Amino acid sequence: MDLPAHQLPHLEYAEAVHGLARAIPSGRVLSYGDVAELLGSGGPRQVGRAMQQGPDGTPWWRVIRADGGMTGFLAAEAADHWELEQTPMRRGKVDMARARWHPAAGEWEFIEQLARQLASAKLSEENDGMIP
DNA sequence: CTTTTGACAGCGT
DNA sequence: CACGCTGCCAAAA
Fold first, then answer.
1. Is the distance from CB of A77 to CB of A61 less than 8 angstroms?
2. Measured between alpha carbons, how far is A45 from A1 in angstroms, rounded to an integer?
3. Is a pLDDT exceeding 80 seen at residue A40?
4. Of A15, A49, A57, A99, which has fewest CB within 10 angstroms of its CB?
């Protein structure tokens, strides 16, 4: 699906993060840093900020800290989801070594598509701002 | 424009 | 293994 940039929807960073979060299968997780790296833009903190905006049924508990934990009061609720999804745990936290999501070939396509749309949106945004 | 802040990451103690 | 400090990147004030 290689549409020209001008046909792609203007994807906000947050939208890309949400999209990727939804692609994560049940029982699997990604760290904030992983998401940022897969999208090829921003950093862990930007991902966190994006998740906080979390508009709809975004599986926010599948995007967690690199140490397998979750911040604040969310930890309890997240742990509940992890148990329901049978996420590999280790000493009360997610076992990143086993639970980390390894996207399949088809998934990589989707991810690259997200990254590309994100890059395009960024560029067009730059251009819009630059044109006097 | 500068400063502050944050659902982080990594390394040191 | 648990804290603490520093580094990073963008968005919000």
1. yes
2. 30
3. yes
4. A57
A43 CB closer than 7 A to any strand C atom: yes
pLDDT of residue A123: 60
| Structure tokens, A42 | 């921003």
Under a CB-based contact definition with an 8 Å cutoff, are residues A17 and A94 in contact? Answer: no
Confidence of residue A126 (pLDDT cuts 50, 70, 90): low
Residues paired with residue A63 on neighbouring β-strands, in sequence order: A30
Q: Which residue has the tokens 């991810």?
A: A111
Residue identified by tokens 């967690």 is A64
Å separating the CA of residue A101 from the C1' of nucleotide B1: 42
Does any strand C atom come closer than 7 Å to the Cβ of A68?
no
Within 8 A by CB and 6+ apart from A102, the residues are none
